[in-house]
Fold this protein.
Amino acid sequence: MNKTKRLFVFVTALMLSANVSAINPPVKYVTLGRIETLSDNTIALIGAASSVSFGVRGDQCTVKAKSVDTYTHHNYVVIEVDGQYYSRNKVSAAGTDILVMLEPGKNHTISVYKATEASVGTVVFMGVTGKTAPVVTKAKKKIAFIGDSITCGMGNDLSEIPCGSGEWYDQHNAYYSYAPITARTLGADFVLSSVSGMGMYRNWNDDHKDEAIMPEVYENLYLNKDASKKYDFAFVTDITCIALGTNDFSDGDGKKPRTPFSEEKYVANYIDFIKTVYKHAPKTKIVLLNSPMVNGAKGELFVKCLNRIKDEVNKQPGHSPVEVFTFSDITPHGCGYHPEIEDDKAMAAQLAPFLKTLIK
């Protein structure tokens, strides 16, 4: 090979290593959560806090993403650099480039988390421009969180848009929901299966007449009624936390007719749902969580129901004991009486030590 050809090959190789994308994959992508690899090798981030991580080297990189849904609107992602929160960014339907400035001369691990939830549509990760570097991975414990708006991080981030302004999801930050904070505290990987407004036997403003409930969508990849794409449950969890009931106990909007809360329906549906969880993760340790949004007499009934469920399931052999964990002294300060980020941190500070005793 002459010098001209060698130079051409060398320059071409440099160009390939400097233009990393999902379509041209010299980079290794590590994904977590409810995601789908699309036909063009781009990655659909579906569920709240679903993520893609990759390695780069140099003083900057550019993350490319777009928002996809049945109608045109934006979504949000959070960028994490070397395990540290970097930014929360709006992602448009036309596509958004997010510049990430880095400390030069070293390898970095960048993670892109979906800050919004499945019902807000999909964030498609299109790739990244930057110089390829290996991703450092290690085996971790795995925690699944199943829940509603609290688990999604709805209404918790007031740093840019105040409550009551913008779109209903503009204050979403799933990265800072109590669930990912808890998992990060424990050094665990995690997946969130959560949808705002959903309950165990009825939803926030629907007595299971027009809308699907969590037991009906849990096995579907996109957490909706579309059963054509199933979630593969390849993420085999050590612990599964279930936080459903806030919407079952809710009075709705106060305008739409609402039947009284049915303890029997709630308990029966919950027990059946646990069977579904065990079907996909028979060795997982299940923890039932109450809600800081339900208090007073309803809060007491909530905990009573959880203990009924625990006792009934624990009569059945072949699994680890089901546990009940109750949050205490948490007053939500976010939008719509949801936890704000500091409240989420307080919730995680209570939950993490409890889970640590189980995760050993």
